Amino acid sequence: MLKNFTLLFCILGMGVITAQNKNFEYTQNYKSSITDPNVNFYDLVAQKRAEIATWDLSVKANHKAMKQFERWVYIWQDKVNADGTFPTTANRPLSGTAYINELMTGQSQNRGPGDTWEQIGPVDKPLANGYVGYPGKGRINVIAEDPNNTDIMYAGAAAGGIWKTTNGGLLWTPKSDFLAGLGVTDILVDPTNTNIIYMATGDEDGQHISSIGVFKSTDAGETWNPTGLTFSLNQNEYINDLAFAPGSNTKIFALTNTEIKVTTDSGTTWTNVPVTYPYGTFTEGFQNIVFDPNDSTKVIVSDQFGAIYYSTDSGASFTMHAVFEGGNDLKKLKITSTPNDPDYFYGISQEERSGGVITQQAEFRKYKFNLSNTVSDLVFTSAITGFNSQGGYNQTIAVSPVNKNNLIVAGVNGFRSTDAGATFTTLMNAYDSPPGVGFYVHADHHHVSFVGNTEYVLNGHDGGIHKGPFNATTATPWEDISNTLVITQPYNIAVTQEANGDNFMMANQDNDGFSKILQGGSRNWLSAIAGDGTSTAIDINNSDIRYLGGTNGQLYRADAGYADGYDQATYILGTNNDAAFVSPMSVHPTNANIIYACHGDIKKSTNKGGTGSPGDWTDLGSGLIQTKFIEVVKNDADTSIEIYTIGNNGGTVTAKLSMDDGATWTTLTPPTGQIFNSFSALPNSPVVYATVSGYNTGNKVYKSDDNGITWTNISGSLPNIVMKKVVANRASTNETLYLGTELGPYVKTNTTNWQKMGSGLPSVRVEDLEINYTDNMLYIGTFGRGMWKMSTLETDTTPPVPDVPNLPDVISQCPINNISELTIPTATDAVSGTINGTTTVTFPITANTTITWTYTDAANNSSSQTQNIIINDTIAPVPDATNLPDVSEECSVASLPAPTATDNCAGSVTGTTTTTFPITTSTTVVWIFTDGTNTSTQNQTITINDTTAPIPDVTNLPDVTEECSVASLPAPTATDNCAGSVTGTTTTTFPITTSTTVVWIFTDGTNTSTQNQTITINDTTAPIPDVTNLPDVTEECSVASLPAPTATDNCAGSVSGTTTTTFPITVSTTVVWTYTDGTNVSTQNQEVIIESIDNSVTQIGNTLTANATGYNYQWIDCDNGNAPIPGETNQSFTPAITGNYAVIISNALCPETSACYMVTILGVPDTSFRKNLIAYPNPVKKSVTVELGFVHNNVNVSIYNLLGQVVAKQDFKNTNKIEMEFDAAAAVYFMKITSETGQAAILRLIKE
User: Which residue from 207, 858, 870, 929 puts its CA 20 to 30 A from 936's CA?
Assistant: First the structure.
C-alpha cells in the first residue's frame, strides 16, 4: 500500500517541490531487489560479482560479504523464472492459504509411501577433532525464554524450525517440523500464559526464504496454527520483530518490510498502522520496536536506513523523526531498552562500506524516550571499530536488565562494554583477532539477550547457541548448548555402498564438513575444515578416503577420512574465479582413481586428485564456466562414461552431455521456457530424468528415452514448489524416482503418481539424495535438519542367471596374457538384461588355475560360476642363429648384442648371460634362453690380446723457459688403444731450479712409451724497488741511521737495500741504495738534508727567549768571556744586571750559539760610587757634565737608547769630571759609568 506522506510545498514562482523517494542501487542491496519487478536476477548477479571482483578478498569482512552474496545466489537460482525475473503473482508458488494448508496437513499426518525416516544426524555436536574454530551445528536467529522458568527456552533456526528445551539447553526437541524449512525470525512468549507462543516465520537475516506469516501455539509449542497475518512466498515478506504492547497479552506489534502491523485480538486479525514521513513510498524494512517504560503511549520503531519513528498514541500511528530520517543507503538500526535505564533506549547502527572498504564505522547510540523531535534526542554515540554486520546480516544488541553500564553488541564478532557504551572490547572472538582477547564463539551473531533479571547471556549465531555470564573471560568462556539441535544445512552428502553402511560425509553451509568414521575405536561425527562445505564424496573402494569441497571449486582429499584431524587433507583443487560458489564433484562409478569436479569447466583426475598440481587434472572442455551440477554414469556401450553437467555459457544457464568421458559435448535443450537444474541417468541406457527450476505450475520433472534429445513431462500432480534434485533407483524394476524439493522428498513409480515419501520427516528442503544399493537405503541431506535415511521402496534382489550353466575348460600350451584371449561368458538379469562376466584373476595366467566369473546387476545383485584354465608348455626356446660369431679384441668387450631365440609361447626370447662386462680376458660367454619353464643355451668365444703401447697425444712437448724455477708441469697424456687416456709420470724432482730434461713415462699396465721435455732456467731481471721514490730525510745536525728500503725480485722475492754511506751523516748528501738478487743489480737514491739549529733569540723587555723549542739551553755572559751562567738552562733568561748575553742551543749531537744581546737594567744601584755623581744639565741639550766627586784613573762611559743599543761611548782618564758631547735625537737615554775598580752606575738622561 502507499504510505501516508506529507508533501512539502515551497512556492517559487510556479515551482513546486514534491516529496522525494528513498532509493538505492540493487547491487548494494541485492536482498531487497526481489520485490522489484524491474530487476533481473542474472543481471543483478553479474553486476554484483563485477563489484566484488574489485574488492580485496584477503580482508575477512569482504570475503564474508562475498560468501553472504553467493549463498543468497545459490538459494535463489532455483526460484527465479527462466527469464531471470523474480516470482510474482502471475507465476506464484502455492498461494498463501494453499501453501499453509499443505504444511498444516503435514503437522497432523506426514505419511506417504515408504517407511519412517530415521535421523542420521549429527544429533550431538560433531567432535571438534582438533578444530579450535569448531564449525558448530547451524544458524540460530532468535532465542526466547519462558519468563516464569528460564530453563524453558525456544530457539528459532534459519531453516530448521523452532526448538524447545526444558532443562536449560541440555536437550532440545523440534516443535515445528511441519514448517521447519521456512525458518524463524522471532518468538514471543505470552508472560501471562506461557503455553501461548507466537512464531514469526522466514529468514530475514539471510533472506534465503521469505515469511508465510505469524503462527501461534497454545500448548507450549506442541501444535501450531496460522494467525490472521499470513503471506505467500512470492510476496517476499519478512517479519523482523514481534512485541506485546505494554501491559497487554492480546495487543501485538509485528514489523514487516513495509508495514507496522498490529493485532488487538491475539493474532486473529491484523491492521496496518499509519506511518507519516516526507517521502514517497519505499521499503522501510522496519527493524525493532521499543516502549517507553515511563509512558506507555510512547513507542519507538527503527528501520533499515537508520531512521527512527515515534508514536505518542500507543502505536495507533507513527511519524518519522524530523532529524533522524536515515539516509538513502541501507544502514540498519537495531534498538533495545533496559528496565535499568527507563529514560533511554539504545541502538547499534550498521557500518558503511564502499567497494568493500569501511567508510564509516558502526555506531553505538543512546536516545531519549522523551523525544523533542530535535537533534538533542540522540544523547550519545561512540564508534565501534572493527564491527562487521555483513550488510546487516548479523547485527544485534542487548543491555543488562540490572546494570545499564553493561551491554553487548554483536556482528561477525561480539563486543562488550562496561561503561555504558563509551568503550568496547572484543568478547566473542571467532578468528582470534585481536589475538588472546575474549574467547571463541562461532562467528556471525544474530541474537544476544540477558536471561530473566540476571546477567547471564544467551547468544544465537551461525554455529548454534552459547550461554554464559556477562563477565566471562578467556579462561572461563561461555558454554555451547547446541547439543541435540539438528539444524545443519548440508549442500551435499556422501554415502558408501558398504553393507550396514555407517560411513558418511556432509558438506555444510557455513559449518564446514562433517565426517562420520571410526576414530579411536568408536564411530563418530568429526569436524572437518572447509569454511562453507560445498561438495563431498567417498572413495568407492576405500571408505576411509574422502573428499570435501570448499567455496569456488576448492577440493580436499582426506586419506584417513579426517580421523587423524580436522585439517589432515591434501589440497587437490584451489579457488577458481570461474567456479560456482557451490561446485559439486563425482567419483567414477567403477574406477576409484578417477574423480570429476566442477571447477569452472568439468575437470577430471586419474589419480584421485594427486597432490593438486596442474598435471593431476585435465579440463574436459565442456565450454561452460560456473558448472554447478554433475552426474557421471556408465554409457550405453559400457566402455566409457556419460557426464551430465549444468553451467554458464555466455551468461545463460546451459546443460551439456558427454557420451565419451568428456571427449566431446552436446548441448541439451530443455523444454520451452524451462531451465534444467538436475539430471539422473540410468547406466548403460539412453534413459535420463531431469528437474527444472522455478515456480512454473506443471513443469517440474521430465524424462528422456534418447539421452536428452526429446523430453516428456512427468510432473504429474506435483505442487508448484521448487525442485532440487531427482535420483532414479537403478535397482528398481518399476521406474522408481526420488525427488528432493523445498518441501521434502517425493517418490514416483511407473504405476503411481508423485507422493510425499515416508513419515516422520520435517517439512524441509532436500538438497541432496544418495542411495546405498547394498542396504537398499535412501539418504537425504536436508537444508536445515541434517541427514536422514529410509529404506528404498522397491528393490531388485534377483541375481543374474548365467547363460551357460557349465563353462568349458580352457587348455593352452602358453600363458593367457589378458582377458581378450578368453571368451567372456554372459548372464541374463531380469532388470539389467545381458550382463558381461568379470573376474579378479591376475593376468597373464601362467599356471593351471580356476577363475571365477561374476555377474553383477545395477542393484549390486551378483551370481558367479567357475572355469578351469590348463597351461602346459614343454618346448624350450630355439636360438635364431645356429652358431654365434667369435669376437676378438685387443682391450675388452664392453657389451655384446644379446642373441635371440624363438619360443612357441613367449615368441621372441632374448638371451641372458651371467658373464660380467666388460670382458677383459679371453673367455667363453654362455647365453641362456628361457620361456619361464624351459631353458636352452648357446656359447660364444671371446679373445682379448693387447700389444700396443700408449701414443703421446702431442708429438713434441713444448720447451719450458723460466727465469726462476718450475714448481710443477702439467702432466702430458697419451692415448692407449685399451686404457684410453693415460697420464704421464716422471721421476724429476720439483721445483726445478736449473735447466734440465724431464722424461715423461706412459704405461697401460702392459706396454710403456716415453717422451722428453726441455726445461731452461735463466734469470735476467733485476730487483724492482717497492717504492718508486724514496722520501727525502731532513734532520738538524746529523742522521744516525736510515731504514733500509726494499725491492721485489721476480725470483728472490723481497730484497733489502744496502749502502756504502757512512753514518752518522752530518752534512747534506745523497745516499745510494743497492739491491741485488745474486745475479742482477738495481740502485735507488735518497736525499739527506742536514739543517742547523735555529739560534735566534727574542728579547721582550729584560727577558731573552730562544726561538728553537725542545732543545738543551745554556745562557752565557758575553761580557765575561762567554762564561756559562750557573743555573740558567731554561729556554728563557732574565738577567739581573745590565750586560750582553747569549745562549748555547744543543741536542744530542750538535750545539749552536746565538748572537749576544744587550740587556739594560732600568734602575740605579744604591752605591757610594753612585752617590758621588752629579750630572747636569739634565735635560741635556748638546752636552752633559758629570762630576765624579774625586779623581779616577780610568772611567768608561757608554750611552744606551731604550733598545739597549750603544749610541755614544768615551773613555776618560785622571779626572774628577766628565764633559761629553751628546748629539742625539730627543728621547730618554741611559748613561753607564764604570770606574777602574769595576764600580758602575747608570744615570737617566733626557735629551731635548
Answer: 870
Task: Please name the residue that has the C-alpha cell 748572537.
Answer: 1155
Considering only 213-217, 413-417, 631-635, 1037-1041, which range has the smallest mean pLDDT?
1037-1041
Per-residue pLDDT at 460 exceeds 90: yes
pLDDT tier at 752, thresholds 50, 70, 90: confident
d(CA 788, CA 745): 11
* Residues 6 or more apart in contact with residue 1196 via CB below 8 angstroms: 1209, 1211, 1233, 1234
Following DSSP, what letter does each residue of 627-653 receive, concatenated? EEEEEEEE-TTSSSEEEEEEEEETTEE
629 forms beta bridges with 646
Say how many CA atoms lie within 13 Å of 95 toward its Cβ.
Answer: 3
User: Picking from 37-41, 521-525, 882-886, which range would have the lowest pLDDT averaged per residue?
Assistant: 37-41
From CA 493, how far away is CA 810, in angstroms rounded?
47
User: Which three-class secondary structure state does DSSP give residue 546?
Assistant: strand
Task: For the chain, report the end-to-end CA distance as a whole number of angstroms.
Answer: 136
Amino acid at position 1124, single letter: P
Once rounded to an integer, what is the mean pLDDT over residues 231-260?
A: 92
C-alpha R_g of the chain = 58
Query: Is the peptide bond prior to 122 cis by the omega test (within 30 degrees of 0)?
Result: yes
Average pLDDT over residues 451-455: 94
Residue 95 in grid coordinates:
498461494
Contact (CB, 8 A) for 632 and 585: no
3-class DSSP assignment, residue 1144: strand
Q: Is 888 exposed, middle or buried (0-12, 13-18, 19+ CB in 10 A)?
A: exposed
Encode pLDDT of 331-373 as tens digits: 999 999 999 999 999 999 999 988 888 899 999 999 999 999 9
The answer, yes or no, to whether residue 502 has pLDDT greater than 50, is yes
Please write the tens of the pLDDT for every residue from 871-913: 888 899 999 999 999 999 888 899 999 999 999 888 899 999 9
Distance CA 716, CA 739 (A): 13
Q: Which of 259-268, 339-348, 371-380, 1145-1154 has the lowest mean pLDDT?
A: 1145-1154
Whether pLDDT at 856 is above 60: yes
SS3 1039: strand
Amino acid at 349: S
Q: What is d(CA 1100, CA 914) in angstroms, rounded to the nearest whole number? A: 119
* Closest C-alpha among 1018, 1017, 1015 to residue 1000: 1015
- Helix count (H) and strand count (E) of the chain? 4, 97
Cβ neighbours around 1185 below 10 Å, total: 14
3-state secondary structure of 614: helix
Compute the mean pLDDT over every residue in the chain, rounded to the nearest whole number: 89
> In 579-676, which ranges are continuous DSSP H helix?
none
Name which of 397, 460, 31 is nearest 208 in CA terms: 31
Is the pLDDT reported for residue 310 higher than 50? yes
Ramachandran assignment for 391, one of left (phi > 0), alpha (psi -120 to 50 degrees), beta (any other):
left
CB-CB contact of 204 with 185 (8 Å): yes
Q: Strands 197-201, 184-189: parallel, antiparallel or unpaired by DSSP?
A: antiparallel
Strand partners, 736: none
Using DSSP bridges, classify how beta strands 1008-1017 and 960-962 pair: parallel, antiparallel or unpaired: parallel
In this structure, are residues 157 and 176 in contact, taking their beta carbons and an 8 Å threshold?
A: no
> What is the amino acid identity at position 982?
V
- SS3 of residue 595 by DSSP: strand
Residue 755 grid coordinates: 507422493
Residues recorded for the chain: 1248
d(CA 1133, CA 1122): 15
- Residue 770 phi/psi, 5-degree rounding, is -140, 150
d(CA 710, CA 725): 20
Contact between residue 427 and residue 477 where contact means Cβ atoms under 8 Å apart: no
Most confident of 178-187, 1009-1018, 1139-1148: 1009-1018
